[in-house]
Amino acid sequence: MEGRLPGLLIAPSILTADFARLGEEISDVVAADADWIHLDVIDGHFAPNITFGPAIIKSLRKITKKPFDTHLMIAPADPFLAAFAEAGADHITVHAEAGPHLHRTLQTIRGLGKKAGVSLNPATSERALDYVLDEVDLVLVMSVNPGFGGQSFIPGQLEKIRRVREMIGRRPIHLQVDGGVSPKTIAAVVEAGADVVVAGSAVFDGGGRESYRKNIAALRSAAATAGAIAV
Ligand SMILES: O=C(CO)[C@H](O)[C@H](O)COP(=O)(O)O
Ligand SMILES: [Fe+2]
């Protein structure tokens, strides 16, 4: 497909969707060519917002078979991993800052039969991944501080994305970037090494599947110009 970067996955974040019509909103982004559905779980303790938990995810599971990419901004995460797995999460990503036993947490997620992800806040070094990469299926670099959609991309995170890409080497690990990704920033993110981008406000703009289709297509074609766009 013209303007489409092979291998790039787009994961719309439902944080900026209309929560009164969440099922329809998910059907609409699926119809609009989303690859994964990114579910932001926030507890008001680890990050300053409160969203939803396993019960909502279980209901949404009926809407689509697309991978549910679950971003846990909660601490502690360990007591809730089984509930998110049972609710239908496919990927469970925890924050490196959320608990003292990251290695054990990642082993638990894989033991539940799910893909294990680690997320890094903007102030967290990529060195937090040392000694756990063999337990990881996905690294999520936050390009905003966690909690809210619609924030501005933090350009300093591009250097971290490049370093994580180098650390991953030939391992089969996705490198995902989340926060402030738009047609203006996506090329730089992809050029730095991301193969999965999360986008909330850039996708859920306009309302309805035709707008979402245009928004996702705009992200894909901007990504395909990697090299030409600065942030
Ligand atoms: O994890 C998140 C916030 O904590 C969201 O996934 C992220 O902010 C997406 O929204 P936007 O693309 O509007 O920045
Ligand atoms: Fe997220």
UniProtKB/TrEMBL annotation:
GO MF annotation list: D-ribulose-phosphate 3-epimerase activity; metal ion binding
Highest taxon listed in the record's lineage: Bacteria
Active site: D40 (proton acceptor), D178 (proton donor)
Enzyme Commission designation: 5.1.3.1
UniProt key word Zinc: yes
Pfam families in UniProt: Ribul_P_3_epim
Reaction(s) catalysed by this chain's protein: D-ribulose 5-phosphate = D-xylulose 5-phosphate
Obligatory cofactor(s): Mn(2+); a divalent metal cation; Fe(2+); Zn(2+)
Textual note on the cofactor: Binds 1 divalent metal cation per subunit.
Listed GO biological process terms: pentose catabolic process; pentose-phosphate shunt
Biological or metabolic pathway of the protein: Carbohydrate degradation
Function: Catalyzes the reversible epimerization of D-ribulose 5-phosphate to D-xylulose 5-phosphate.
HAMAP family xref list: RPE
Descriptive protein name: Ribulose-phosphate 3-epimerase
Native source species: Methylocystis bryophila
Classification lineage: Bacteria, Pseudomonadati, Pseudomonadota, Alphaproteobacteria, Hyphomicrobiales
